[in-house]
Predict the structure.
Amino acid sequence: MYILGISAYYHDSAACIIYNDEIIAAAHEERFSRKKHDSGFPTNSVKYCLNESGLTIADIEAVVYYEKPFLKFERLLESYYHFAPQGLTSFIKSIPVWIREKLFIKDELYSQLKKNGNLDKKKLKLYFSEHHLSHAASAYYPSGFDSAAVLTLDGMGEWASASIACGKDGELKIIKELHYPNSLGLLYSAFTYFLGFVVNSGEYKLMGLAPYGIEGSEQTEKYKNIIREKLVDIRPDGSIKLDMKYYGFATGLKMIKTRKWENLFGIKKREPSESISQQHCNMALAIQQITEEIVLNMAKEAKKLTGENNLCLAGGVALNCVANSVILSSGLFEKIFIQPASGDAGGALGAAMAYAYMHKKIPFTASESDKMKGAFLGPEFSDSEVLKTLRKYSADYKYFENNDDLFAFTAKQISEGKVCGWFRGRMEYGPRALGNRSILADARNSEMQKKLNLKIKFREGFRPFAPSVLSEDTRNYFDIEVSSPYMLYTAPVNASIRNKLPDDYNEMELMKKLYTQRSVIPAVTHCDFSARLQTVHKETNPNYHALITKFKELTGTGLIVNTSFNVRGEPIVCTPDDAFRCFMRTEMDILIMQNYVLIKEHQNIKPELFKEKFKPD
Amino acid sequence: MEFLKDMWNFLKERKKYWLIPMIIVLLLVGILIIFGGSSSVAPFVYTLF
């Protein structure tokens, strides 16, 4: 039984095909359309998933959409009614979109799916899962756990913004929900907006900025008190209540009532072009710590209500790896699984799985490891497809017959300070590049963070980089007891490899702080001595594991820098063409695509041909 | 027609009958907003408001 899951029309559209309990293919639409956070119908993703499964749309048992549009419409109407006459402008803008498109989503989905072949409307079953049920299913069913508490947290679904569920022997029941307008995701997004980042994409920048705040400082504590006293009522049962007089999302087109926030905190809203000061960092730290407190309360409530020893997490907030680590270190649960595609894209997978297990009652089996196949669920390109691209651009290349030689060559280049684009195998599902669409570099190199941020990724200098570490070597570098294959935890860098900070560290400017050498792996050691690590396992990505092993043989260090293969504002590369263009427009030194190697200085092509502008996120 | 049937079933399931008049008014106003901007319905909108 093949099931197609779809998430679309909000942000991060995606499609996924499962065969009974096996995930066959899953991909984000943005990777194909090259539009970051593409919200349109995932035409290309559906096409790819069908091709990968060798199917036509007629072979699909059911199509499941990841949320219930009518329920969302009900929430919209009730909230407009509740807040009237406020919200008229927002109403005038949103209702036509609903009437034109979203209310008639059934017809829209049929007409879009029809583009993939003959479709008998009467035969094809179209189902709608609930938003948070989709998230919960995407976390519980692939986790491998027979029973678990399931916690989902995001901006907003239909009515729910967070839920606690219990999964047992394939049955998944939602026990408790937090409802609109109270939402941890929206609270975090409100600060994202106030600090000058883009809502729905800049949240991870806020998380990256937080460690530059001064913990325990008078200002940070003051901000935390204001948040607690004025903006959000944090309750011990895991719920929260936002004071809506400070927020604009219910009635207007903005997240917050800016003037009220400026009066409250005594600082101006930061404009995107404005430089980042210590007070911005302190504010980021304050909201990050409040978020961690709320997430931990929710996890405690999930434990109390279910009594389970395992926890599954999903929803956009579950991409906050610092908050995830707080749950991990609390010791509340023995095992934790976090869905790597925790954002709305993962809803496509959850919707399909909810249908398979809850509606069709397919047999459920627990397993030792998770069922995500390392999140390598996207398209793969053969040597001949890569070669076609190289010929198209008359590129200069070298082919390695043997993987061992290729890995040894690449490892040597990385150890000599070169930055390598690494494009091999199936593309990742979820927002993280996990070693198949990655840019790799030497973490020991003191200049690497600066070089990668400014010359390769063209992004803000404060942004940290993540290490990919051999799973068996993890404890040589990091204080963490569990594996982190999807880059969803942070861990402290071991004290033995840290450097002593200068006495005036807290008084330093942001950029000076940034370039202080904090450990023997400075490129991946964030300013609070943490790292958002990825543990690399032989079982899920043998080639990437073999490459890092070669690097270790050369240098004695079993980890490298891994950042996504893209520039600021660009979706992660999908095809060899995307990879080649990205390689040419940056100062990347080497590109490896399958077994082909390209060296930048050997290319006799004008880089100006590849200048593409992406809207900064 | 299928849309109306689905909407009715939804309202029945959720027991939100009180939303019916609101939905009808909003749909009508919404339709006017959509067409009012650029089509021959515009004068009709001005007469109404």
Chain B touches chain A through 17 residues (CB under 8 Å). Chain B has a mean pLDDT of 75.
